[in-house]
Design brief:
Helix content: over 70%
Largest sheet: none
Order of helices and strands: HHHHHHHHHHHHHHHHHHH
CATH superfamily: MFS general substrate transporter like domains
Shape: globular
Structural class: mainly alpha
CATH class: Mainly Alpha
CATH topology: Growth Hormone, Chain: A
CATH architecture: Up-down Bundle
Distance between the termini: 32 Å
């Protein structure tokens, strides 16, 4: 007899539907990202109330990704031990807890909350990669991973449009609380699919493992190693842009806080379209590394253009620059994640993803903080983007090396 709609087999099939998995993984990524981007979105407001410089926001990004490093290397092991759904729930719980700490409103609680947010953020990609390669693998792998990675710009859109408006209307604490509440709501929703997604977990796997084993796997695989070097450069560029775009527009381009938030939203929307578009391109030409190389060159060009930004710029030019940054500096991650999954051993995808993300995050730890320090010393956020252009250029060189070392795509 065919199963009834409420039967366990039908429920499992629905939970494991590739588009359900992709949608849920994207939502987890979006909400975890929104919590990390909420503070940079209203950095000038928080800095004014605390009596500090907005340039300190670079250190907030450093703290977030320090937390991300700590958990990304253990993400693969946690997925095997707890399951991908439980690991994703843990990520959302930590994101919400970090937001609650930020609401404390002192430099110390914001710092601690940023670290806790990072602990959650570091768990998202190993869990998602495991789920996508298990339930959504196919000939459109770059597109699948790119759709999932649109969660980052979707989170940025949420932060850019909602957080400044809520902060001005009700206070910045309510803005952070709203984002944290969204993370908790998604945590509860994952309970509906947890047993269907986590049926491959192995409770016998111990969490007491060498935390650098994941990095060692990446390091001894040339394609993964060069991909990780490239992602260090591109993610550093991306986070400097996301962390300081609002402050740059307010301090040097004559924008108000809400108007700057709109530019950030444009940038993130372009990031959504860019991730999907570049995923389609990579699948069409069958070469993820070449696609990423072109993206890196476009990031270099956009950063060099930013050096010349001033209040004299037409607002349309600012919108175009924001869209360009979104399509490139925010749009590369999906193709990168798919390429890491493709080059990893089939039974170590979560581990390889975590190891690669540790190297990626380590490049971010001091990047935005250094950007803020240099900007404060030179008196210009715009000119500091010249340094970011050089870093993105190094990423392009690493991608050429990764392309030479990459093995051919696995037949699916």
């Amino acid at each position: 007899m065919p199963s009834s709609p409420a039967s366990p087999s039908t429920a499992a099939a629905n939970a494991r539907n590739p588009w359900v998995v992709v949608g849920a993984a994207t939502a987890v990524q979006a909400l975890a990202s929104a919590t990390t981007l909420a503070v940079p979105t209203i950095a000038p407001r928080i800095a004014e109330l605390l009596g500090t410089s907005p340039s300190l926001i670079g250190w907030q990004t450093t703290l977030i990704y320090s937390g991300g490093v700590a958990t990304s290397v253990l993400g693969g092991v946690m997925v095997r031990r707890l399951g991908a759904a439980r690991t994703s729930q843990a990520a959302l719980a930590l994101a919400a807890l970090g937001g609650a700490l930020v609401i404390g409103g002192t430099l110390w609680t914001i710092a601690l909350g940023s670290i806790v947010m990072g602990l959650g953020y570091g768990l998202t990609n190993p869990a998602a990669s495991h789920l996508l390669m298990r339930f959504a693998r196919g000939p459109r792998l770059n597109l699948v991973f790119s759709i999932k990675q649109t969660g980052v710009p979707w989170g940025g859109i949420l932060a850019g449009l909602m957080v400044p408006s809520v902060a001005l209307a009700f206070g910045w604490r309510w803005a952070i609380a709203a984002v944290a509440a969204g993370a908790l709501a998604m945590l509860a929703a994952l309970a509906l699919v947890r047993r269907h997604w986590d049926d491959d977990r192995d409770p016998a796997v111990t969490l007491r493992q060498n935390p650098f084993a994941a990095v060692a796997l990446v390091w001894r695989t040339p394609a993964l190693r060069y991909l990780s070097f490239a992602s260090m450069s591109l993610s550093l560029s991306q986070m400097c842009i996301l962390a300081f775009m609002t402050t740059l527009l307010v301090a040097e381009a004559g924008f108000g806080l809400v108007e700057a938030g709109f530019v950030v939203a444009i940038m993130q929307a372009a990031g959504v379209l860019g991730r999907i578009g570049w995923g389609l391109v990579a699948d069409r030409i069958g070469d993820g590394c070449l696609t990423l190389f072109v993206l890196a060159l476009l990031v270099v060009a956009a950063c060099l253009a930013t050096v010349a930004m001033s209040p004299a710029w037409p607002i349309v030019a600012v919108y175009v620059l924001g869209a360009t940054f979104g399509a490139t500096a925010v749009g590369w991650n999906g193709v990168y994640m798919a390429e890491v999954a493709r080059q990893a051993p089939p039974d170590r995808i979560g581990t390889a993803t975590g190891g690669s993300m540790m190297l990626t995050f380590s490049g971010i730890i001091f990047g935005p903080a250094s950007f803020g320090t240099i900007s404060a010393a030179t008196g210009s956020y715009a000119r500091t983007f010249g340094i970011v252009a050089v870093i993105a250029g190094l990423g392009a060189v690493s991608l050429l090396a990764a392309r030479r070392a990459a093995r051919r795509p696995i037949a699916t």
